[in-house]
Amino acid sequence: MIEIANSAGDVVKFIYACPSWIVVKGAILHDTFSTIGGAEKLMICLAKAVGADIITGQASDEVVAVLEAQGVNIVRLGEPINEPILRTRVTIKRFSECDFQGKYDFFIFSGIHSLHAADKHKPSIWYCHHPDKGLHYPVQSTLFIKLKQAVSKRAPILRQMADAFRIIRNSKLKGLRELIRNFKALRFFKNVESDKSFVNCVTAIVVNSKYTANSVKGIFGRESVVVYPGIDTQKYSCKNPQNFWLSVNRIERHKRIMMQIKAFADLPDEHLIIVGAKGDDASFNGILDRLPENVTYKGAVSEEELAELYAGCRGFITTAIDEDFGMTVIEALASGKYVIAPQSGGYVETVLPSVGKLVPQMTAKTLAQAIKEDIPTDSALRMARAKEFDLSVFVNGMKKVIECIRAR
Length: 408
Prior knowledge:
single chain, alpha/beta, Rossmann fold, 3 domains, seven-stranded parallel β-sheet, six-stranded parallel β-sheet, 15 helices, 15 strands
């Protein structure tokens, strides 16, 4: 039995009796392939497994090559744009204007920007990797409430702006930081109100963890189905550990790479290798030019080189705050490696005490302490845990949901 929420948020239950997979043609609409991440890897694997085309706002040839997307038909809605803010606006516009209804039997939306095409493409699934990280501002100050009321009025935009500035002028702010904090919260409110209309257009919502399901319920008021992401566990192997720890992530602030660097600065006998493409924050990327001698940044690497690094590392560390799932953890476990992760987000669902260590309220100091602890040698147990998140399990779960939305 599987539960799917309809557009009103009501949970609909479907019961299967020997379900069979009928060959149909689907399309996966993914925001962009500008960087390499777990979401991009997962959608390429899903497209291959179900024979779907991929429609994307833009795609870098270098990223597509690293993702081993041979055999997948990738439809680019436009040329690549490097400037982050402009890229977001243009990507949303491209999806809002595209129309592939009638050319495919089902649609899967991946990311938040692709949802701007949800009103024209049915039946559909939104695979939510994470709600917008920039939207998590639990501000309920008096100023925020007044601003929210001002921009919620059915009035011209100039009138809304004038009311907002009047409220700010009459408020007693403690500083610029408080003003910025309230405006970020206001952006969260406005984005959610805009995104809700598109979220309500999809037939079903699928999420990558129970943690994400709770976020979607809290932000959008919709129920969802948990189908954990998967990897091809056969691509990974375990070799005798060398004297280095491995960290694999995009170089972004919420990944807290600086925490890793500080921890290893206090551990001169340990060595850390960081793998991952740089993000859009050029100022933050500057930290990679001032690394301790025992920390190496390799940038983006091929899937073959990454698998070798996993196989040979002593252990794997991640410091991302409230990660919704964390594909790299599963890749490390498939390589038989011990995992150290924060006790938060989706890591709580994947990293059991038998395969790794969850660190409460992780800091550079507590991370260093965890690294110095003895590592259990049972690699077989860790590899067995990874098989619970094999790609085949993910694909079978997605096929069931696809059958459901097509039967409605």
